[in-house]
Amino acid sequence: MEVQLIKIEKRNDLSRSIYFLTPVLAIFLTLFGGGIIFYILGFNPIEALKFFFITPISDLYGLSELLVKATPLCLIAIGLSFCFKSNNWNIGAEGQLIFGGIVGGGVALLFYNHDGFYVLPIIILSGAIGGMLFAMIPAILKTYFNTNEILVSLMLVYVAKLLLDYLVVGPWSNPEGFNFPETRQFSESARMPILFGGLRIHAGIFITLITVFLSWLILYKTYLGFQIKVSGLSLKTAKYAGYKGKTMIIIVFMISGACAGLAGVGEITGPIGQLHRNISPDYGFTAIIVAFLGRLNPVGIIFASLIVALTYLGAETAQIFLQVPKYTGQVFQGMILFFLLGSDYLLFFKIKFLGLKKNEF
Amino acid sequence: MSFDLNFIGILIGAIMASSVPLILAASGELITERSGVLNLGVEGMMIIGAISGFALMVVTDNLFFAVIGSMVSGLILSLIFGLLTQSLLTNHVATGLALTIFGIGMSAMIGKNFVGIPGKEFPLLFLNLKESIPFLGPIFFGHSIILYFAFGLPFLTNYFLKKTKTGLIIRAVGDSPTSASNQGINVTLVRYSCILYGGAMCGLAGAYLSLIYTPQWIENMTGGRGWIALALVVFATWSPIKVLIGALIFGGITILQLHMQAVGLRIPVQLLSALPYIMTIIVLVVISRDSRKIKLNTPTSLGQIFYKEK
Fold it and tell me: If contacts are CB pairs under 8 Å, which of residues 272-311 in chain A contact chain B?
């Protein structure tokens, strides 16, 4: 019997083309895997995938919804890319988003009776600061008390959720709202301008685009960006070069938190228009997938956010047409990340075929 | 007065019951982490265990199959994690996160047809003793067999890690995979086994929730318990006995919070619900501050990828 001998070797040269092609491969594998799951559940896989990925964006309204969902995802993922690039595992962006929403929403309620161009900028700024401060908790605990940032940032997600719950049920609930767990509707001056009549796409998309540009500038054109990248590649090198590690950890968390806070404030002043219990369908967690799928690269993240936003829309459509739960979107999101991480194997290792050999066993 | 005493006994019994899923999941994850693998997918494996246990109970009408099935499904999910992190050498943190997201989605998909179906009564042991002995009765008797197993597990785990050869091998792999490998130990195999064991225990923890604790299926019913279990392992500085103590403290807060709500104390419900999370952070800060102390117990290679040139 003859067998093909293969040898697996570590690559010394990182192949750039494979680096940006594996995400595409991962997406195709996910579609394939999703088709199999739909088939097992008794659906026609082609039909089901069509409902999931084509129907939602086949009209103008759908495309606008795609951008509405991609806006916060892209923004958060951009922030997270700073943390992940420097090996800081901030996985509590959801909490930072909610806290930013709380602070921004609080300011919006404060300016309830005000009219003026200055209202919205103040709200947006306070939301960003809120998210930033919330992200500084795990950063400071990590730098000064050596605490694991994964666990702290995650625990704070639940704290933020419960704080929001307390506020919308209790002190901030709408006085004319028949005890519904929600605040007043914000005034017109506190809302993001709608870009096209009849669609929900709002000016928040410009905040995202500006942030993408700024982050590209910081990451690739400044000394700070260089430091971030070096620390991510090798902490020892960074220390040897004399970079102030602690300051950098706090800065990347601040950037990340501010982005998440901006996303939160964009949601409440944009599509939602008030505070209630569920201001985010786990955007903060999903953005982690977006960041990876986009290879922590600003442009990559834009594309990744559109694809992952589609899983949200697809889940909604599938819920209506196929009666599957809306959590189905998470199955696809999880699979994308599985396949992406798995196909990275091709990136770091190469498979060598050594030719056919006689099997001696 | 005897009534009050009995009430405290019932309260302690309830605290024990609510700590069971935490003990099971954290004990499993502890073994996984001791071998140097950080699996953040606990929540996902628990929820898959919860739905598969419940679904099997409904379909087969057999609780034994349900419990075994939940463990197998937790194991299957952890096998995905093992394949990725051990064979394809992916990042532990990202893979674990994907596992949780996937698990929650998958459980909701499977569970679609099981929402609203009432659960079956799980047999409780020594019910007559629970009634007849005041105070001690409700503490020690009238529980399910899984609870007794859970309370024995930390001691077993402790013995296993400290006194057996296999336990020593696991710790060696976690502390220095390279030296272990040079000693002829198959690091990848050891880590695979520990990952699968952790998955099975998380599955069992989920089954406890959907079969015994709140016998029904609710979407997302684990409600963050998996993350608390993860925090517990750090809280316990990777010592199984301290996992037991920590789980009881967290269970205690959960039960206390329910009772304070019932008594009508004027403390916001949300503050009480947030207490376990805030507590975890405080404890993390306290134990992490002394870097020597945490280094003494932390598996040195935790979360690091081990690659052997073949």
Answer: 285-286, 288-289, 292
